[in-house]
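Batch queue: ligand-bound targets. Current item pairs a single chain with adenosine-5'-triphosphate. No template structures supplied; prediction is de novo from sequence plus SMILES. Inputs echoed for audit trail.
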Amino acid sequence: MAGRTLLNVNKLRSGYGNVAVINGLSFDVKEGEIVAIVGRNGVGKTTLLKTLIGELPCQGGDIEFRGRSMNAVPAAERAQLGIGYVPQGRGLFTGLSVEDNLRLGKLVGGRPKEMNFDRVYGFFPILKTRLSQIAGTMSGGQQQQLSIGRILIGNPSIMLLDEPSEGIQPNIVQEIGEIIRRIRTEEKLTVIIVEQNLDLIQASADRCIVIDKGAIVDEILPSDLDDPEIARKYLAI
Ligand SMILES: Nc1ncnc2c1ncn2[C@@H]1O[C@H](COP(=O)(O)OP(=O)(O)OP(=O)(O)O)[C@@H](O)[C@H]1O
Ligand SMILES: [Mg+2]
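Prediction returned. Tokens below.
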């Protein structure tokens, strides 16, 4: 399934002011892959995603998307090039309706001309039945579906998900994992998923990159996390 390299991260450095959080991190993601970024709290997973989308500047090294350096490309343009981002905590407009959130998806990224609501409802049918509901009144799992749907509407070629399992019931986790795999197949989407939830990692990812203190310390298969010692070492469980 995996094809050409879509994203190439080379000796990336980033952080906040003088505080280095990502310290020379390198990896590739191929078209059609679902790669999980795992690691305990505070190791730099969110910082990495924010640097990939351009919310934080790259302080060293390089991010190449389709062979083109993104370092000088502002966040809004990266989104238009097809880098979609679902932030930790979902980033919804909780006081607005489901429909408005979907429509406003274009403001947080993506390629609005190609918006296709029916495609999103195909993955998340609940959204179609709740268009007028205020987003903040939806359940955690429904809000997570909305936050992913909102990004899909912009037709990204890669989607970066930051801990989508946060705040959702365990019985929905498996379903979200299966939907992520369906989206990958049907939309030919590449996915980077930051996760600490074992079930979601195993339901969605092809491989896992393990981060500690802003560097890659291991690369494992989701099934390797069946070993409780490995899971304890690499996940905050
Ligand atoms: N805006 C900020 N200013 C200064 N330091 C920050 C800022 N945001 C995060 N940090 C620090 O950077 C480090 C990495 O944080 P980051 O949010 O990337 O971790 P994480 O791996 O996503 O953790 P979690 O699993 O808890 O979400 C932490 O030490 C954190 O305190
Ligand atoms: Mg985080």
